[in-house]
C-alpha cells in the first residue's frame, strides 16, 4: 500500500504490485487469528513521482490497525507502483454570452460533453467541482453546432477533452 503521504500530489497510482506476493507468517495461534491484513510500506521514504520499484517492509495488523508481533518470512518484498498524472472528473456548466440575431430565442443548448477530466496537483483540484463551457451566441441565427472551449481554472494543467461541441437550437 502506498499512502497519499508517500506520493507526490501531482500524481496518482495507476497500478501497484508486490514480489513475492505471498509470505509465511509464524506466531502463536491467538496472534495469527488476530491478523486482518499484512501491509508492505516503502523503507526509503521519499515522495513517489515516477514509476518505482523499491524494498518494502511487511507489517501485520489487526482490524483496529494495531501492529501484531509475528515473524514474517520474507519480511521485505519489492513493491512496484506505476503512476500517472493526477486527474479527476468534473461536471461541465454552460454559460451563454452574447445574443442571437433578429431577436430570436434559444430553445435549447446541448453539449457533447457534460463531464471532463481535469489534471493538476491533487490539493489544487480538490476545490474544483465543475468547469465552465462559455457559449457565444453572437451571430447565431439558425439551429447550429459550435465548437466551444472550456474556461480553465488557473491551477488546472490540462482538460480532456480540451473542447466540446454545443448544439444550439433556435426557436
Topology of this structure?
Layout: E1 11-19, E2 24-26, H1 29-34, E3 37-42, E4 52-61, E5 67-68, E6 71-73, E7 76-85, E8 87-97, E9 106-111, E10 115-120, H2 122-125, E11 130-136, E12 144-151, E13 156-160, E14 163-170
Parallel strand pairs: 8-11
Antiparallel strand pairs: 1-7, 2-6, 3-4, 4-5, 4-7, 8-10, 9-14, 10-13, 11-12, 12-14
Can you walk through the features of this model?
This protein is mostly beta strands. It is built from 2 helices and 14 strands; from the N terminus they run ββαββββββββαββββ. The strands form 3 sheets. The chain has a 7-stranded mixed β-sheet with strand order 9-14-12-11-8-10-13. Strands 1, 3, 4, 5 and 7 form a 5-stranded antiparallel β-sheet that branches. A two-stranded antiparallel sheet has the order 2-6. A hairpin with a 7-residue loop joins strand 11 and strand 12.
Distance between the termini: 57 Å
**Alpha carbon gyration radius:** 26 Å
Instruction: Please tally the β strands and state the result.
Output: 14
Helix/strand-derived category reads: mainly beta
* Largest sheet geometry: 7 strands, mixed
- The residue-averaged pLDDT reads 91
State the low-pLDDT regions, or none.
Answer: none
Q: Topology as H/E string? A: EEHEEEEEEEEHEEEE
In the sheet with the most strands, the strands line up as 9-14-12-11-8-10-13
What's the helix count? 2
Shape: rod-shaped
Q: Beta-strand percentage?
A: over 45%
Amino acid at each position: 500500500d502506498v499512502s497519499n503521504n508517500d506520493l507526490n500530489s501531482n500524481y496518482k497510482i495507476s497500478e501497484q504490485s508486490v514480489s513475492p506476493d505471498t509470505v509465511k507468517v509464524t506466531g502463536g495461534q491467538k496472534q495469527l487469528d488476530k491478523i486482518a491484513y499484512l501491509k508492505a510500506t516503502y523503507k526509503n521514504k521519499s515522495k513517489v513521482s515516477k514509476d518505482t520499484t523499491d524494498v518494502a517492509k511487511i507489517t501485520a495488523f489487526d482490524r483496529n490497525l494495531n501492529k501484531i508481533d509475528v515473524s514474517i518470512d520474507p519480511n521485505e518484498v519489492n513493491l512496484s507502483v506505476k503512476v500517472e498524472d493526477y486527474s479527476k472528473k468534473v461536471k461541465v456548466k454552460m454559460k451563454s454570452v452574447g445574443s442571437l440575431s433578429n431577436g430570436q430565442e434559444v430553445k435549447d443548448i446541448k453539449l457533447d460533453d457534460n463531464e471532463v477530466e481535469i489534471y493538476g496537483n491533487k490539493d489544487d483540484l480538490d476545490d474544483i467541482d465543475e468547469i465552465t463551457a462559455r457559449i457565444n451566441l453572437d451571430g447565431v441565427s439558425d439551429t447550429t453546432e459550435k465548437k466551444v472551449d472550456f474556461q480553465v481554472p488557473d491551477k488546472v494543467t490540462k482538460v480532456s477533452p480540451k473542447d466540446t461541441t454545443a448544439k444550439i437550437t433556435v426557436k
